[in-house]
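Okay, can you check this protein?
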Amino acid sequence: MGSPWWGFSEYETDNWIQEPDGNDEENCLALTSEGHHYLRDKNCSELLSPLCMVSRYNL
């Protein structure tokens, strides 16, 4: 997807680091208020609220 949907994670030596920047350690997607609601890659073990939930049915 790239920019403009992904946020910036931090500022280092005159360059902004664009998300996703977690490599293999952050494989889940999140929208956070601290990130101004841009997409962030997060560690999948973090407990966050889901945007939506779907029940699975046995068919």
